[in-house]
Amino acid sequence: MKKKYSEIIMAVILLAVDALYLTQAFRGKKTAFSYTGAYTFPKILGLILAALCVIVILRAFREKGTFKVTNLGLTALSVGITAAFVILWQCFGLFYLWAALYVLALLFAFRTNGGRFSKRNILFNLACTAGVILCCYVIFTRMMEVRL
Amino acid sequence: MSLFANLDLSYVLRPEVFLIILLGTFIGILIGALPGMGAPLAVALVLPFAYKMTSLTAVMLLLSVYQGAEYGGSISAIVLGIPGTSAAAATVLDGNPMSKAGHPGRAIKISLLASTIGGIFGGLVLCFFTEPIGKFSLRFSAPDLAMLGIVACFAIIMLNKGNFIKGMISIILGIMLSTVGTDVFTGTSRYIYGQPTLLDGINVVAIIVGAFAVPEMLNIISEELHTVYVTNIKSTKDKFSFKDTLRITKPLFSGSIIGTVIGIFPALGGAIAAWISYSFARKISKKPEDFGKGSAEGIAAAESANNAVVGGSLVPLLSLGIPGSASAAMIAAALMMFGIQVGPQLFNTDTKLLSGIYIGFFIGCIGLYVVGRLLTPVFVRVLEVKNEILVPLILLVSFIGIYASTKKFLYIWIAIVFGTLLFFLRKHEYPLAPITVSFILGSTIEKNFRRALDLSKGSYTIFWKTTTSKVIFVCTVLVILFPIIRALITSFKNKKAGNAPAAEQGNGEE
Questions:
Q1: Residue B24, Cα to own-chain centre: how many angstroms?
Q2: Fewest C-beta in 10 Å: which of B58, B154, B266, B437?
Q3: Mean pLDDT of A130-146
Q4: Which of A10, A24, A110 sits opposite B424 (nearest CB)?
């Protein structure tokens, strides 16, 4: 993608978040006992951010070159696996089960050297996962008494 | 020093404090040694676990991690020639050649000694300067404090050579996040979107993990996942005698002084301190020609400076409530978790804690030396651990940390969503450190800004009324204008440089 467009898209996303922020700020009720209401400061912040985003958009038109996120697929997959892990943990509890699957899934996604599902890789990933989970259990559940 | 009059040694000299310092130093060196994972990430990873401790042990944990990471950065700089932290970049120049010449152990020992001396010097300045500055700052009124907060935020982006506008956006985003929750003046719930969990505001741990751990890990997945570091070092047992120590005395002390002074100013940080100290040491050295070829003085100058910054950066934090760096902001966040507001009020409310921090700081420096001497060979081996194994581990520990300190899944979601957004912002050259600093300072800025306007019945002239206000106002304007003027000068120079060849070409044709 052209850098110009990626810069504009990013600034537009920020503007959209800012619009949401400003909408609530301008809908907020005024207070009679203070010179500054609860939303006076957010209004100032929101307006400054909007102005800055417009400047970024205007400057983006002068940008040359291309924008590329290397390994975008793998990065997106990692975010997806992370989201799935948190959903499963939130819905069913059983932290250590989902955590083991999470670490294992990430290791399989990342470690491709010598074949993703080669015997050596499978054994290494399983051993690594077991080690991580055991360490987490000993440190967090046993020593720090964190209920997960 | 009234603080030392209130000193209760039994409060500090406890086994758990020693244990925490040793553990924190170990974690700090470990993470600092890994290329690309600096002190802020190290501090961010342990911050969530500080909630179970007392305020003193929590601060000691974070401080020892901070100190350890600053030293740890030099290990990969020396062994691999890749600085673990930006502050260790100057160490590469002499540390790596000395290592390549067959003396990695000597280089690491010089670095460790310099880091310890620098740390102790920074600690001394912390002890003797914090209280006077803090007591002076009690004269500051609401408008002064609001403007000081703004100065601190802008100082973070002032030296950033990147885009100033994007830096400002980062600051505004951080302050915006701090406005979520109940407004303390009116009791209005702001931006909670039906989530009662957000009534107390967004948990600082979620913001810190979201701003440092998640984008950093996504960045590694994107760019450095399969990077393999190979260390060919067989032994780190080179000798380093007392005579050798005497030879590096000058750069050790000049580095310590430069590092501490630079640390006091918000945002300058370890990298700038190390480079200035390195250049200064070369100027005053009897053998400047050795610099860049494995000079012991070069390593000592850079390393003493970047560790002296730690003590220096705590001076504005404890005396004014202004975090000078992202790591210092996280120490402020840890204190906030215990309901302690950093700043001049600490001298009235928490003198015991303050004196504990002073003493603990020195114990931390000694702990750094002990852990460094005993475990450096282990840290050298850790450099070979691949990122593809570290990333799942760090992500998992980050989420456990958020859950352990908040018991809310909402904050894990905030860290993931926020972290992913920040990953893309970072890819577009938006700096991330100002977000954390401005988030921490946001409520102070807003509170004092509104208090000032209420006092003046809505008149903005209050920001320009007293002499102190005028001085701080001028500083604020200068800090905001500095990057704009610099950008204008750079573009003017670029235009001139662009016109010059054309003119020359024109002359040639004539």
A1: 16
A2: B58
A3: 88
A4: A10
Torsion over CA of B335, B341, B345 and B351, rounded to 10 degrees? Answer: -20
Neighbours of B143 (CB within 10 A): 26
Q: What is the pLDDT of residues B212-254, one digit of tens each?
A: 889 989 999 998 888 777 666 666 667 777 777 888 899 999 9
Provide the H-helix boundaries in B159-210. 164-178, 204-208
CB B42 within 8 A of CB B28: yes
DSSP classification of residue B384? T
Contact yes or no for B82/B76 (Cβ under 8 A): yes
Look at residues B478, B441, B455 and name the one whose alpha carbon lies nearest to residue B146.
B441
Give chain B's mean pLDDT.
84
Produce one character per residue of B245-267: b if its CB has 16 or more CB atoms within 10 Å, e if not: bebbebbbbbbbbbbbbbbbbbb
Of the candidates A69, A102, A103, the beta carbon closest to that of B222 is on A69
Q: pLDDT for B81-123, tens place per residue?
A: 877 677 788 888 888 888 888 888 888 889 999 999 999 999 9
Q: Which residues contact B40 (CB under 8 A, 6 or more apart)?
A: B212, B325, B326, B327, B330, B433, B436
Contact present, B135 and B344 (Cβ < 8 Å): yes
Q: Which of B178, B428, B457 to mutate to test the interface with A (most CBs of A within 10 A)?
A: B428
Q: At what angle do helices B467-509 and B142-158 cross, to 10 degrees?
A: 30
Q: What is the ipTM of this complex?
A: 0.94
User: In this predicted structure, what is the pLDDT of residue A100?
Assistant: 96
The mean predicted confidence, pLDDT, of chain A is 91
B204: burial class by Cβ within 10 Å (0-12, 13-18, 19+)? buried
Per-residue model confidence as pLDDT tens digits over B404-414: 888 899 999 99
State the CB neighbour count (10 A cutoff) for residue B92.
21
* Res. B507 pLDDT band, cuts 50 70 90: very low
Q: What's the Cα-to-Cα distance from B162 to each of A101, B168, B216, B430, B487, rounded to whole Å?
A: 40, 11, 18, 8, 10
Give B392's contacts (C-beta < 8 A, 6+ positions apart): A102, A103, A106, A107, A110, A132
- Determine whether B377 is exposed, middle or buried from the number of CB atoms within 10 Å of its CB (0-12, 13-18, 19+): middle
DSSP letters, A35-72, are SS-TTHHHHHHHHHHHHHHHHHHHHHTT--SB---TTH
Instruction: Look up residue B228 and give its two tokens.
Output: 């393999």
Three-state secondary structure of A93-146: CCHHHHHHHHHHHHHHHHCCCCCCCCHHHHHHHHHHHHHHHHHHHHHHHHHCCC
Q: How far apart are CA A87 and CA A84, in angstroms?
A: 5
Give the C-alpha separation, B434 to B418, whole Å: 15
Q: In angstroms, rounded to a whole number, what is the distance separating the alpha carbons of residues A8 and A15?
A: 10
Nearest CA to CA, how far is A111 from chain B (Å)? 7
Spatial separation of the C-alpha atoms in residues A130 and A119, rounded to whole Å: 17
Q: Is A141 on the interface with B (CB under 8 A)?
A: no
From CA B374, how far away is CA B391, in angstroms rounded? Answer: 27
pLDDT average, residue stretch A132-142: 90
Please name the residues between 28 and 47 in chain A that touch chain B, using a CB distance below 8 Å. 28-29, 31, 34-42, 45-46
- pLDDT band of B1, cuts 50, 70, 90: low
Residue type, B39: A
